[in-house]
Task: structure prediction
Amino acid sequence: MTNATYTAFSVSDLYQAGYSCDGHPYIGEKYYVIIENEAGRRFRHEKSFAGVEVVECEETGETNFVDIREDAKTIVADLVAKVNAALASGKSLTSSCWFEVDPAYGSNAYVDQGTEAKRAYADRNAA
Result:
Protein backbone atom coordinates (compact mmCIF):
# COMPACT_ATOMS: atom_id res chain seq x y z
CA MET A 1 0.00 0.00 0.00
CA THR A 2 1.65 3.19 -1.15
CA ASN A 3 -1.31 5.52 -1.52
CA ALA A 4 -0.84 8.77 0.44
CA THR A 5 -4.59 9.41 0.26
CA TYR A 6 -5.00 6.98 3.15
CA THR A 7 -5.11 8.40 6.68
CA ALA A 8 -4.46 6.42 9.85
CA PHE A 9 -6.46 6.77 13.06
CA SER A 10 -7.04 4.79 16.25
CA VAL A 11 -10.13 2.75 17.05
CA SER A 12 -11.21 0.76 20.08
CA ASP A 13 -13.45 -2.25 20.61
CA LEU A 14 -14.71 -4.01 23.70
CA TYR A 15 -13.71 -7.58 24.45
CA GLN A 16 -14.08 -10.10 27.25
CA ALA A 17 -10.80 -10.00 29.18
CA GLY A 18 -11.77 -12.83 31.51
CA TYR A 19 -13.99 -13.53 34.50
CA SER A 20 -14.05 -11.74 37.83
CA CYS A 21 -13.94 -13.64 41.12
CA ASP A 22 -17.75 -13.73 41.22
CA GLY A 23 -17.91 -15.36 37.78
CA HIS A 24 -19.08 -12.35 35.82
CA PRO A 25 -17.39 -11.48 32.54
CA TYR A 26 -14.91 -8.62 32.75
CA ILE A 27 -15.16 -6.39 29.69
CA GLY A 28 -12.00 -4.62 28.58
CA GLU A 29 -11.13 -2.29 25.75
CA LYS A 30 -8.57 -2.96 23.02
CA TYR A 31 -7.06 -0.45 20.62
CA TYR A 32 -5.81 -0.74 17.06
CA VAL A 33 -5.06 1.30 13.93
CA ILE A 34 -7.24 1.72 10.85
CA ILE A 35 -6.25 3.39 7.61
CA GLU A 36 -8.99 4.83 5.40
CA ASN A 37 -8.98 6.51 2.02
CA GLU A 38 -11.25 9.31 0.83
CA ALA A 39 -13.73 6.82 -0.63
CA GLY A 40 -14.08 5.05 2.75
CA ARG A 41 -12.09 1.89 1.97
CA ARG A 42 -10.47 0.66 5.20
CA PHE A 43 -7.64 -1.59 6.30
CA ARG A 44 -6.91 -2.65 9.89
CA HIS A 45 -3.46 -3.23 11.35
CA GLU A 46 -3.00 -6.80 12.57
CA LYS A 47 -1.76 -5.78 16.01
CA SER A 48 -4.11 -4.69 18.76
CA PHE A 49 -3.27 -3.44 22.24
CA ALA A 50 -5.27 -4.51 25.29
CA GLY A 51 -6.35 -1.88 27.77
CA VAL A 52 -6.50 -4.43 30.56
CA GLU A 53 -3.72 -6.47 32.13
CA VAL A 54 -4.94 -9.73 33.64
CA VAL A 55 -3.14 -10.56 36.89
CA GLU A 56 -3.64 -13.64 39.03
CA CYS A 57 -3.13 -13.27 42.77
CA GLU A 58 -0.51 -15.81 43.90
CA GLU A 59 -2.08 -16.23 47.35
CA THR A 60 -5.76 -16.52 46.47
CA GLY A 61 -5.68 -17.48 42.80
CA GLU A 62 -8.23 -14.77 42.08
CA THR A 63 -8.05 -12.93 38.79
CA ASN A 64 -7.57 -9.17 38.94
CA PHE A 65 -7.77 -6.69 36.10
CA VAL A 66 -5.42 -3.71 35.92
CA ASP A 67 -6.51 -0.71 33.84
CA ILE A 68 -3.70 0.06 31.34
CA ARG A 69 -5.80 1.92 28.78
CA GLU A 70 -3.66 5.05 28.90
CA ASP A 71 -0.55 3.01 28.07
CA ALA A 72 -2.36 1.28 25.19
CA LYS A 73 -3.66 4.62 23.86
CA THR A 74 -0.13 6.06 23.93
CA ILE A 75 1.27 3.09 21.98
CA VAL A 76 -1.50 3.28 19.38
CA ALA A 77 -1.14 7.07 19.02
CA ASP A 78 2.57 6.57 18.33
CA LEU A 79 1.79 3.91 15.72
CA VAL A 80 -0.81 6.20 14.09
CA ALA A 81 1.78 8.99 13.85
CA LYS A 82 4.35 6.63 12.30
CA VAL A 83 1.87 5.25 9.76
CA ASN A 84 0.66 8.73 8.77
CA ALA A 85 4.28 9.90 8.38
CA ALA A 86 5.06 6.88 6.19
CA LEU A 87 1.96 7.45 4.05
CA ALA A 88 2.68 11.16 3.68
CA SER A 89 6.27 10.48 2.58
CA GLY A 90 5.11 7.97 -0.04
CA LYS A 91 6.64 4.94 1.69
CA SER A 92 4.86 1.66 1.23
CA LEU A 93 3.27 -0.18 4.12
CA THR A 94 3.87 -3.87 4.68
CA SER A 95 0.75 -5.43 3.23
CA SER A 96 1.08 -8.54 5.40
CA CYS A 97 0.42 -6.34 8.48
CA TRP A 98 -2.91 -5.04 7.17
CA PHE A 99 -6.22 -6.66 6.29
CA GLU A 100 -9.28 -5.14 4.69
CA VAL A 101 -12.32 -4.49 6.86
CA ASP A 102 -15.79 -3.12 6.13
CA PRO A 103 -15.77 0.33 4.55
CA ALA A 104 -16.83 3.40 6.52
CA TYR A 105 -20.59 3.54 6.94
CA GLY A 106 -22.20 5.86 4.40
CA SER A 107 -18.99 6.32 2.38
CA ASN A 108 -18.73 5.86 -1.39
CA ALA A 109 -17.01 2.51 -0.80
CA TYR A 110 -19.89 1.46 1.45
CA VAL A 111 -22.52 2.51 -1.09
CA ASP A 112 -20.61 0.96 -4.00
CA GLN A 113 -20.28 -2.45 -2.40
CA GLY A 114 -22.76 -4.79 -3.97
CA THR A 115 -23.79 -8.36 -3.33
CA GLU A 116 -20.74 -9.73 -5.15
CA ALA A 117 -18.41 -7.57 -3.08
CA LYS A 118 -20.05 -8.80 0.13
CA ARG A 119 -19.67 -12.42 -0.98
CA ALA A 120 -16.02 -11.89 -1.89
CA TYR A 121 -15.39 -10.25 1.49
CA ALA A 122 -17.03 -13.17 3.32
CA ASP A 123 -15.02 -15.67 1.27
CA ARG A 124 -11.74 -13.87 2.10
CA ASN A 125 -12.55 -13.96 5.81
CA ALA A 126 -13.58 -17.62 5.70
CA ALA A 127 -10.23 -18.69 4.26
Q: What stands out?
A: The radius of gyration is 18 Å.
